[in-house]
């Protein structure tokens, strides 16, 4: 794996990705080899010795290795592996474009926030693009995605137009949720994005329910349904009761769901290691009867490989998988977070593992596309993002009449007024000035 | 979660069924004291346009049309929990997307046997026995509702749904709005609540007061087999999330209900006994305490008007308002706590809307603000008893 075999100490996800001879991994419930975490030197050294024993490939020392060094090493070996590329040109460009869109969009969000175009709590996804792209680009339109408050890029990857997301952030009526949701509540019925939740863990049962519907359609309604649901959430959520309750139910009923943990090591200012008794989240899968996989979340191709298997499992009705993606957010928790607690060395380390840079290198090294083609994509994305800002700027703010419109799907729920008519028949109701 | 005491149902036999001495219904078909409101549901343009398909709001209307043939359908007698099950089964037959989730709803048949036999008929997936994880399976119901199913969540005891408050408030109530109207959450959340027979504090909770502020949900409370079935069906058919409050002591009430299909309105109150002197607003079990007090009051020469509000959120201000305009005195009798209860909200609503019609301040009789004690005597003093209702009426009518 040319673009990301750095720092083998940090992760040793699957045997498959180090030996590129396309061995299919066995996703039964066996425990995969452990990996260490950045931030705990002693733990790292302990696992280093374990890795040495298990892995057939010789390990480097526990220092940060530059991508270019490994690329050189791989080049020597890769003469026979031209046919073993993980992606085609088309796939590569799709992945690249999606990640660049995610990055450019989030950067624009930051700009717009500081210019006073959006308010409240805005959580940016910079650095984690490989997880969203790696998983969501494998899905069909009917598959469902559930996310947390860090949901802009999940929505974009799933196909929600950038215009609609930006409008929603600006609080305009053309937003995907008519301006009523905001940054933390991105929903799209058309693209099956089921939110956008502000409380962590709150979306996991909803995702479990969507997966339940898929199974119900197949087994009760006898429809041809192989829809899969992905639930994205962070390391902090993995200490929450709803996570464990849903792992249990999903494994119990073999629901078509993949639990994707975006472990970026920090829950606002709480380090994952300070909050969790056993920080290796992937291990918690087998405890409930499902495979647990750890993967390098800064490498979109590795994530995609794991995702293909996990989503495939779910589609075939074999049940859920827990995938822990080790990733990192380049910015603070939200735009209001001064981000003072994280070690600059840690940030610098992960900056060298930027997933977009890594994919670009892979594409160019393997001659899948030219520099010019990639530049063209970047330019196109810039235009898309600029256009989305323009569109959002020009869109109208919600009128007063919108205030009460979506409280109830059936507005009779507002009840019967003293005059005997349903409240929603009051002409003032649509104006938003009615007394309810 | 402790096992439910089945025997509590037996004790409820001591409560008289709806007071029939003043029934105005002329139908020999059913012994229900159902009173028609002034509006005719069929000719009313509002009802006419609102109701879709063959749903009728009041069985009374249909029977009025076919008075001659009404006699050929004698109705059938059943207990309240059976009425709930009948309504549930009819809806599950009608729409294959309707499913039930909860603890022990499947093989066990439900802690109060509301779902008995349904798992055998519909399978383990449609009547799903969940692990003990209220917040998560309620959330699962929300996710299922968003993706096309119509789940009914049973709280083994309503009090357990406190654990699901996160999902009920944030997701059931709010998701339709925060998604800009894209997703509907047609769930029904139901279960037994209220003060039973010495069940202890945690099994005797009244959650209606906690849930009433959640925007986006509707709450109804059933009190007779007739309205239990009707409200169950209406709740399942509603596109809104509905919380249906049942009462532990009312499951064994027996009544004769119509054979033909009927669905009640979720937003309307029920006139139990028309009168002239005072309006008594109540719901759920307290309806029976009120009717018991009404007997005494009638003997003393009073003429109370008793309304079972049924819809706890939103209030039916039309039925209530008409009553207030007639009697000018209001007493609210409820089982939930005094502080922040349904009665408190109702008092505020009536004061705001009908202040000019009141001859006396509204009297609200609620349970004491105490965790329900175990001891029988203490528990009796926690809830409102008929004697207190009689005294309140005498007081307000002076």
Automatic annotation (TrEMBL), chain A:
Organismal lineage: Eukaryota, Viridiplantae, Streptophyta, Embryophyta, Tracheophyta
Cofactor(s) for this UniProt protein: thiamine diphosphate
Keywords: Oxidoreductase, Pyruvate, Thiamine pyrophosphate
Glycosyltransferase found in the keyword field: no
Superkingdom, taxonomy of origin: Eukaryota
Pfam families noted in UniProt: E1_dh
NCBIfam families according to UniProt: PDH_E1_alph_y
Gene3D superfamilies: 3.40.50.970
Organism: Rehmannia glutinosa (Chinese foxglove)
Reaction equation(s) it catalyzes: N(6)-[(R)-lipoyl]-L-lysyl-[protein] + pyruvate + H(+) = N(6)-[(R)-S(8)-acetyldihydrolipoyl]-L-lysyl-[protein] + CO2
Official protein name in the record: Pyruvate dehydrogenase E1 component subunit alpha
Keyword Coiled coil annotated: no
InterPro entries: DH_E1, PDH_E1_Alpha_Subunit, Pyrv_DH_E1_asu_subgrp-y, THDP-binding
Enzyme Commission number(s) from the entry: 1.2.4.1
Assembly behavior: Tetramer of 2 alpha and 2 beta subunits.
Physiological role: The pyruvate dehydrogenase complex catalyzes the overall conversion of pyruvate to acetyl-CoA and CO(2). It contains multiple copies of three enzymatic components: pyruvate dehydrogenase (E1), dihydrolipoamide acetyltransferase (E2) and lipoamide dehydrogenase (E3).
Domain Dehydrogenase E1 component: 98-398
Top class in the EC scheme: oxidoreductase
From TrEMBL, chain B:
Residue intervals of the Transketolase-like pyrimidine-binding domain: 78-253
Catalyzed reaction equations: N(6)-[(R)-lipoyl]-L-lysyl-[protein] + pyruvate + H(+) = N(6)-[(R)-S(8)-acetyldihydrolipoyl]-L-lysyl-[protein] + CO2
The protein's Enzyme Commission number: 1.2.4.1
Enzyme class: oxidoreductase
Record PANTHER family: PYRUVATE DEHYDROGENASE E1 COMPONENT BETA SUBUNIT, PYRUVATE DEHYDROGENASE E1 COMPONENT SUBUNIT BETA
Function of the protein: The pyruvate dehydrogenase complex catalyzes the overall conversion of pyruvate to acetyl-CoA and CO(2). It contains multiple copies of three enzymatic components: pyruvate dehydrogenase (E1), dihydrolipoamide acetyltransferase (E2) and lipoamide dehydrogenase (E3).
Name listed for the protein in its UniProt record: pyruvate dehydrogenase (acetyl-transferring)
């Amino acid at each position: 794996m040319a673009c990301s075999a750095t720092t083998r100490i940090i992760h040793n996800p699957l045997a498959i990705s180090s030996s590129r001879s396309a061995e299919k991994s066995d996703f039964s419930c066996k425990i995969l080899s452990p990996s260490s975490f950045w931030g705990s030197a002693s733990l790292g050294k302990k696992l280093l010795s374990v890795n040495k024993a298990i892995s057939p490939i010789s390990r480097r020392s526990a220092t940060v290795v530059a991508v270019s060094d490994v690329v050189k090493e791989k080049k020597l070996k890769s003469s026979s592996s031209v046919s073993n590329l993980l992606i085609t040109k088309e796939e590569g460009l799709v992945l690249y474009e999606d990640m660049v869109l995610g990055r450019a969009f989030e950067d624009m969000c930051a700009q717009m926030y500081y210019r006073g175009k959006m308010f409240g709590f805005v959580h940016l996804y910079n650095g984690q693009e490989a997880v969203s792209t790696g998983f969501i680009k494998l899905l069909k339109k009917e598959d469902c995605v559930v996310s947390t408050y860090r949901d802009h890029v999940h929505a974009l990857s799933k196909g929600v137009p950038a215009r609609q997301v930006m409008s929603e952030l600006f609080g305009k009526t053309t937003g995907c949720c008519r301006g009523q949701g905001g940054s933390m509540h991105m929903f799209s019925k058309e693209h099956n994005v089921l939110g956008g939740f502000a409380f962590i863990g709150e979306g996991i049962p909803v995702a479990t329910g969507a997966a339940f519907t898929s199974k119900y359609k197949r087994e009760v309604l006898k429809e041809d349904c192989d829809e899969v649901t992905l639930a994205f959430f962070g390391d902090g959520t993995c200490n929450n009761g709803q996570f464990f309750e849903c792992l249990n139910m999903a494994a119990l009923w073999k629901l078509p769901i993949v639990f994707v943990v975006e472990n970026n090591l920090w829950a606002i200012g709480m380090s994952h290691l300070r909050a969790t008794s056993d920080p290796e989240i992937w291990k918690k899968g087998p405890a409930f009867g499902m495979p647990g996989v750890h993967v390098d979340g800064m490498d979109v191709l590795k994530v995609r490989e794991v995702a293909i298997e996990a989503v495939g499992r779910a589609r075939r009705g074999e049940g859920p998988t827990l995938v822990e993606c080790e990733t990192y957010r380049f910015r603070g928790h939200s735009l209001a977070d001064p981000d003072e607690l994280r070690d600059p060395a840690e940030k610098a380390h992960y900056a060298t593992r930027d997933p977009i840079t890594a994919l670009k290198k892979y594409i160019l090294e393997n001659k899948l596309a030219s520099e010019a083609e990639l530049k063209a994509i970047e330019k196109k994305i810039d235009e898309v993002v600029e256009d989305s800002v323009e569109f959002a700027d020009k869109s109208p703010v919600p009128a007063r009449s919108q205030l009460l419109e979506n409280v109830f799907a059936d507005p009779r729920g507002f009840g019967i007024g003293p005059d005997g008519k349903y409240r929603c028949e009051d002409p003032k109701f649509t104006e938003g000035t009615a007394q309810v | 979660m402790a096992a439910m005491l089945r025997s509590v149902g037996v004790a409820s036999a001591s409560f008289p069924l709806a007071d029939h001495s003043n029934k105005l219904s002329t139908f020999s078909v059913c012994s229900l004291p159902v009173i028609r409101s002034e509006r005719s549901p069929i000719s009313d343009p509002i009802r006419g346009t609102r109701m879709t398909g063959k749903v009728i709001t009041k069985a009374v209307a249909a029977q009025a049309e076919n008075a001659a043939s009404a006699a050929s359908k004698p109705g059938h007698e059943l207990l309240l929990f059976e009425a709930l099950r009948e309504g549930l089964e009819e809806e599950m037959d009608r729409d294959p997307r309707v499913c039930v989730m909860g603890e022990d709803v499947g093989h066990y048949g439900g802690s109060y046997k509301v779902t008995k036999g349904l798992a055998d008929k519909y399978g383990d997936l449609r009547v799903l026995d969940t692990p003990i994880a209220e917040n998560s399976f309620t959330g699962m119901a929300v996710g299922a509702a968003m993706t096309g199913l119509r789940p009914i969540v049973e709280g083994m005891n309503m009090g357990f749904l406190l654990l699901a408050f996160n999902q009920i408030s944030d997701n059931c109530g709010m998701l339709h709005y925060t998604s800009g109207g894209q997703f509907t959450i047609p769930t029904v959340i139901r279960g037994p609540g209220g003060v039973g027979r010495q069940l202890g504090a945690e099994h005797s909770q009244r959650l209606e007061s906690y849930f009433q502020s959640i925007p986006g949900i509707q709450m109804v409370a059933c009190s007779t087999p007739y309205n239990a079935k009707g409200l169950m069906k209406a709740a399942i058919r509603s596109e809104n999330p509905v919380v249906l409050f049942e009462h532990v002591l009312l499951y064994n009430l027996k009544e004769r209900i119509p054979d033909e299909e009927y669905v009640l309105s979720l937003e309307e109150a029920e006139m139990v006994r028309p009168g002239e002197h005072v309006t008594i607003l109540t719901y759920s079990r307290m309806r029976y305490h009120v009717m018991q007090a009404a007997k005494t009051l009638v003997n003393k020469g009073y003429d109370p008007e008793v309304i079972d509000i049924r819809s706890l959120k939103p209030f039916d201000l039309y039925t209530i308002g008409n009553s207030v305009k007639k009697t000018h005195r209001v007493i609210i009798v409820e089982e939930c706590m005094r502080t922040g209860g349904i009665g408190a909200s109702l008092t505020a609503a009536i004061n705001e809307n009908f202040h000019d019609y009141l001859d006396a301040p509204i009297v609200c009789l609620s349970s004491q603000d105490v965790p329900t004690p175990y001891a029988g005597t203490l528990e009796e003093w926690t809830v409102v008893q008929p004697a207190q209702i009689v005294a309140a009426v005498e007081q307000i009518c002076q």
